[in-house]
Amino acid sequence: MLLVAVACGGGLRPIQAPSGAGPRTPQALIVRITGALGTPEIARCHRALRLAQAEGVAKVVFWFEDAGDMGYSATEVQSLLDRLQYSSDADARSETAGVKTVALVRGKCYSGPLYVALCCDDLYVMKGAELGPMVPVPTPLEELRQLTEDDGERKFLTAFRGELRERLEQRKVKMRPDAVKLCEGMVDPTLKLTRAVVREGGIETNRLLTQAELLALKGGGATVLAPTELPSPVVLGAAESVDVGLAKEIVQDFDQFCADALTVPRDDVVELTADWSENLVGWLQLIQPVLLVLGFVLLMVEVKTPGVGLPGVLGTAFLALALFYSYLVGLAEGAEVLLFFLGLAALAVEIFLLPGTIVFGAVGFLCLVFALILSQQSFVIPDTVSEDEILLQNLTNLTLIFLSVIAATILTWKLLPKVPFLNRVLLRPPAPQPAMAGNAAVAAVGTVPVGQLGRAATVLRPSGTMAVGGERIDVVTAGEFIEAGTEVRVVEVQGTRIVVEAVPPRQGERGSVGLVLLVAVVGLALLVAEVVLVSFGTLLILAGVALIGAVFMAFAESFAFGVTMVIVESIAAPVVFTMALKLLPNTRLGKAILLEGPKPAEVSGAGEDPALRALLDRQGVTVSPLRPAGYAKVDGRRVDVITRGEMLDEGVAVKVIQVQGNRVVVAAITS
Question: What is the DSSP string of 132-181?
Fold first, then answer.
């Protein structure tokens, strides 16, 4: 831990404007990535998005300078893409909405960094930028091009193209179909793309075609003119990426990017530099499996040693560090961390408080398994081929971790008694009582009458020993567990089998059934309050404490009452919580305190750009050929336009004749 602290260096740096204008909230936050998109860089991207949401920063810029590597982690990149697209979703949740993500590319950008850049809301390039390739497998390109349709890597490439297409469809600013095809061509080197002029029905259009589309057009009688096959995999320059709609604009330098693209003063743009957490995550990535194994082994050692000692503290610290790594790279959130430590708490209840109940042990084990799996992936149920492979890999790693824990625990328990100093801290079984050895015990058993009172010398689970007049006798209960020191009474004697029961305490020594039910009702009421009030999980935690406390109090009354409360609460808690979610919004109280969603009429035009309506009847000039779609510059603004069907060359004067939603229709101005 000291080595990790030394390697991490200094503390967290405050965010300040470059001009030193004070601690005011910036309008844009920049994350500069050069070279590989490793775990520390991904952690910094997550921190930037979290910080922007917490501080109200409107825009986050990912600046890629000669960025790319062929060995990026698909799991970590996927977690970053999930957070990136969720953060920019204005309908996701009110407290995390409205963070716009912008990518700026300078030099080469390929592989994982290019994947992140394409999924941002906007993409800008500098002069000389180069986008691609983005092949997700390390196999040489020549071997990939020779793969058959039934090959596993070929199927993976096809599935990955589908995942990329779904990611691009989630962007707020949609890409043109040709741009999406080019992105797929960057991923799959076996995808052949051809640019050609297609003549159908006397109309010529520029098309980007796959091999299947090209054969279908020729088979349908269309004429394909000047076909040009694109390189495989696809690599685009700055100008070409703007022409096809992959990038929005070419900027000359960072000042122009701030003025034209971000529309933010340069002094209000700050850069997020690496801090101790990003330096730490590189170490934690390497030692996370070791931390998990050592953490569990140390907790098992804590069970074998009396009191609360160093093994328990270190074990908890190691497990917390392992989960902290998953939090930094965006794989785990507060729910997974809470679920993990609730699982540990349930196992502690099974071992120390209610041994033999099995319920808490099973629940704790399942919580640990689910928390460890969810903390290594950004999804719950896999929907794609990549997610299936990630889940399979996580299950394999988890199995290896549990096997390592079992082997290390067995080895530790065998070695500890032989170590001169450490064998002193192990718990030893009680020494046999010489007064009850051999035939003397049998003789004592025969003299125990029904109704004899004594005290439990050990915990009865359900067997153990009771002390009568300084002697110890082996006894059993009828099924309930009795703590050591409890007064017991002999109720049955059958040969050498002596059955005892706990003597009921005097009035006022034990809790009442009414109090148990009251605590349980309070827990259920807190569940309902969690639905009504914004407590950030505080009321939910209090509800859990109340419900679990009611179970403990019920077991103090009797074993049967405790089991009954466990069954009743396991049914009542989800039913009450679900009914509160469904029925409360329909009541008068719910309508008065809960926020309502926007009316359909209020969001009908949410996807439209109001500024486009101001361009009606304005004049401009085409900045790219219109076939019939392309770009024109109107009032100094680059606009995606379309004609009524005619083809126009670059540099033609046009006039905006119609604006429908985001569709701007232009016509050539005739002299």
Answer: ----SS-S-HHHHHT--TTSHHHHHHHHHHHHHHHHHHTSSSPPPHHHHH
- Using N-to-C axis directions, what is the helix angle for 152-169 and 177-187, rounded to 10°? 150
In the DSSP assignment, the letter for residue 353 is I
Q: Angle at CA 162, nearest 5°, toward 160 and 164?
A: 70
Q: Which residue has the tokens 């017991």?
A: 488
Q: Which two tokens stand for residue 283?
A: 């170490």
Contact (CB, 8 A) for 518 and 511: no
Distance CA 328, CA 591 (A): 39
Contact 160, 136 (CB under 8 A): yes
> What stretches in the chain show pLDDT beneath 70?
1-24, 70-75, 87-98, 277-278, 304-308, 330-331, 354-357, 384-386, 416-417, 419-447, 505-514, 532-536, 583-608, 671
Cβ proximity of 352 and 360 under 8 Å:
no
C-alpha–C-alpha distance, residues 131 and 516, integer Å: 66
Q: What is the pTM of this model?
A: 0.55
Q: Which helix (H) or strand (E) holds 102?
A: strand 100-109
Burial class, 369, CB count within 10 angstroms (exposed 0-12 / middle 13-18 / buried 19+): middle
Largest pairwise CA distance in the chain? 126
Q: Which of 451, 453, 502, 512 is nearest to 476 (CA)?
A: 502
User: Which of helix, strand or coil describes residue 369?
Assistant: helix
CA–CA dist 263, 353 (Å, integer) = 62
pLDDT in tens, 84-104: 777 665 544 434 456 899 999
Structure-block tokens of residue 490: 């002999």
Backbone angles phi, psi at 504, to 5 degrees: -55, 135
CB atoms within 10 A of CB 478: 11
pLDDT in tens, 145-192: 777 777 878 888 888 888 888 888 888 888 888 999 999 999 888 888
Distance from the Cα of residue 210 to its chain's centroid = 36
Q: Which residues does 108 contact at the CB level (< 8 Å), separation at least 6?
A: 66, 67, 68, 129, 130
Per residue in 354-386, pLDDT (tens digit) is 666 677 777 888 888 888 888 777 777 777 666
Degrees (nearest 5) of the Cα angle 660, 662, 664?
A: 65
Which residues on neighbouring strands pair with residue 196, listed in sequence order?
A: 207
